[in-house]
């Protein structure tokens, strides 16, 4: 339900609002969220999972992974649209609660949660704390006992599957910081330990295998390994584990070469996988949950920049490259520099009939790696004052923004039906100076 379009003069509009109006009102760089697009995708995931799993286990729950992008306004959409929320820190948890997400629908993650974060989660009454280490089992249980509550927990398992984009690797062992190793026996030790603590209610196992995944084969292996463990534990300990969580990671299209799967395809395939594995294991299908972040947030948003200087640099072999500088850069989108991510760009403020010239969109920071879009054909007449839109920046851009070079972080605005609403205000130089101890 994207509402981004070009008006008669060739300028970009969102929800009927011309980008020039947004730039005038809120300044640039600016993250512009197409509210209906975000919410229709969130709802599509919720419905697809509810439907695909309805007959198997009464429906599956979709936890929006708030690390992709969260603000109180976004949490409000999540609450209104009936999703759950995955948080990875006390700060994300706080925003979820402020937005009115029911505590019972919130999960708290993290491999090194502070006591304070755990206490906040317990006092709010979150639906699950996803325990990530053997030590943490006792910490959560002790803090729950002090408060006279029972903490619902899931155990995050390292299943030995690593999935990225178009492939996955299944190994016996994974060398990474998250979770309780299945192959190494930590997962089973954790279950025994957690079941021995009456202050904990063990809901089941969780695994997250990676991000920007197009090949769902990795989920087949992770679901199989989780459900085998699930069955073994139920038999050996004589308990019933009501849930299993398969994590997030569904890929989005950053360029025309990426072919993302629709929510119904993902939900349908995962339901098939879970149904088959439970049949093979001879167990009842537990309640399933998933945690997509990027797939909901990324496509809903573009970053609006103003073009400043441009220069043409001669390359070997007689070719040249044009550098188009914008008023932000790696401080509002670190993904190009950090992950070699691909983005595209388009002139947003007007149409141009000028021929396309191979261009590199760069920021204003003191680093040559400060690239936003590595290669894009932009019109030859691109010049200072033009507005440039970089689409697909709704996930892990504002949430990973920095103040490098003492640059204030951009505002985030949601647009819908001809009106705009601030989600996060722009940082000011005064905000940054206020942090300086003098
Ligand atoms: N659940 C867990 C436990 C996670 O660790 C993550 C992401 C998600 C869900 C959501 O994954 P998604 O559906 O968004 O792929 N900064 C990186 C991505 C890091 C993802 C970390 N965990 C990036 O910009 O690509």
Automatic annotation (TrEMBL):
EC number: 4.1.1.20
Cofactors: pyridoxal 5'-phosphate
Catalytic residues, chain numbering: 366
Residues annotated as domain Orn/DAP/Arg decarboxylase 2 C-terminal: 310-394
Reaction equations catalysed: meso-2,6-diaminopimelate + H(+) = L-lysine + CO2
One matching Pfam family: Orn_DAP_Arg_deC
Main enzyme class: lyase
Pathway: Amino-acid biosynthesis; L-lysine biosynthesis via DAP pathway; L-lysine from DL-2,6-diaminopimelate: step 1/1
Gene3D superfamilies referenced in this protein's UniProt entry, alphabetically: Alanine racemase (3.20.20.10), Lyase, Ornithine Decarboxylase, Chain A, domain 1 (2.40.37.10)
N6-(pyridoxal phosphate)lysine found at: 67
Record-annotated Orn/DAP/Arg decarboxylase 2 N-terminal domain positions: 53-298
GO terms for MF: diaminopimelate decarboxylase activity; pyridoxal phosphate binding
CDD domains: PLPDE_III_DapDC (cd06828)
Chain residues that bind substrate: 294, 335, 339, 367, 396
Record's signal peptide: none
Domain of life the protein comes from: Bacteria
Binding annotation for pyridoxal 5'-phosphate: 249, 291-294, 396
Gene Ontology BP terms: lysine biosynthetic process via diaminopimelate
Keywords: Amino-acid biosynthesis, Decarboxylase, Lyase, Lysine biosynthesis, Pyridoxal phosphate
Self-association state and partner proteins as the record states: Homodimer.
Family: Belongs to the Orn/Lys/Arg decarboxylase class-II family. LysA subfamily.
Entries under HAMAP family matching the protein: LysA
Protein role: Specifically catalyzes the decarboxylation of meso-diaminopimelate (meso-DAP) to L-lysine.
Name of this protein: Diaminopimelate decarboxylase
Record lineage: Bacteria, Bacillati, Actinomycetota, Actinomycetes, Kineosporiales
């Amino acid at each position: 339900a994207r509402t981004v379009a070009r008006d008669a003069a060739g300028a970009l509009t969102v929800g009927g609002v011309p980008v020039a109006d947004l730039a005038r009102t809120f300044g640039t760089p600016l993250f512009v969220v197409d509210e209906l697009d975000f919410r229709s995708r969130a709802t599509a995931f919720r419905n697809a999972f509810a439907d695909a799993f309805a007959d198997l286990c009464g429906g599956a729950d979709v936890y929006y992974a708030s690390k992709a992008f969260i603000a109180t306004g976004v949490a409000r959409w999540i609450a209104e649209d009936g999703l759950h929320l995955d948080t990875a820190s006390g700060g994300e948890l706080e925003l979820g609660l402020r937005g009115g997400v029911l505590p019972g629908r919130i999960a708290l993650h993290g491999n090194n949660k502070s006591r304070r974060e755990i206490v906040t989660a317990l006092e709010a009454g979150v639906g699950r704390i996803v325990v990530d280490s053997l030590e943490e089992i006792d910490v959560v249980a002790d803090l729950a006992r002090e408060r006279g509550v029972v903490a619902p927990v899931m155990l995050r398992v390292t299943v030995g599957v690593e999935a990225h984009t178009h492939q996955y690797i299944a190994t016996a062992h994974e060398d990474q910081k998250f979770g309780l190793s299945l192959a190494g026996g930590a997962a089973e030790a954790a279950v025994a330990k957690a079941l021995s603590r009456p202050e904990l209610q063990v809901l089941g196992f969780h695994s997250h295998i990676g991000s920007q995944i197009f090949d769902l084969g990795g989920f087949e292996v992770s679901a199989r390994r989780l459900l085998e463990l699930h069955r073994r534990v139920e038999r050996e300990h004589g308990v019933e584990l009501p849930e299993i969580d398969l994590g997030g990671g569904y890929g989005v299209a950053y360029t025309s070469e990426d072919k993302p799967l629709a929510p119904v395809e993902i939900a349908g395939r995962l339901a098939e996988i879970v149904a088959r594995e439970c049949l093979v294991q001879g167990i009842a299908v537990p309640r399933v949950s998933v945690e997509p972040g990027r797939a909901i947030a990324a496509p809903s948003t573009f970053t609006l920049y103003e073009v400043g200087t441009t220069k043409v640099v001669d390359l070997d072999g007689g070719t040249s490259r044009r550098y188009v500088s914008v008023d932000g850069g790696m401080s509002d989108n670190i993904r190009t520099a950090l992950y070699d991510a691909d983005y595209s760009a388009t002139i947003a403020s007007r149409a141009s009939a000028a021929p396309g010239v191979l261009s590199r969109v760069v920021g204003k920071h003191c680093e040559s790696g400060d690239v936003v879009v590595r290669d894009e054909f932009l019109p030859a007449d691109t010049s200072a004052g033009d507005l440039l839109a970089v689409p697909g920046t709704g996930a892990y851009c504002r949430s990973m923004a920095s103040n490098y070079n003492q640059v204030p972080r951009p505002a985030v605005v949601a647009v819908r039906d001809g009106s705009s609403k601030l989600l996060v205000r722009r940082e000011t130089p005064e905000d940054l100076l206020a942090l300086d101890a003098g």
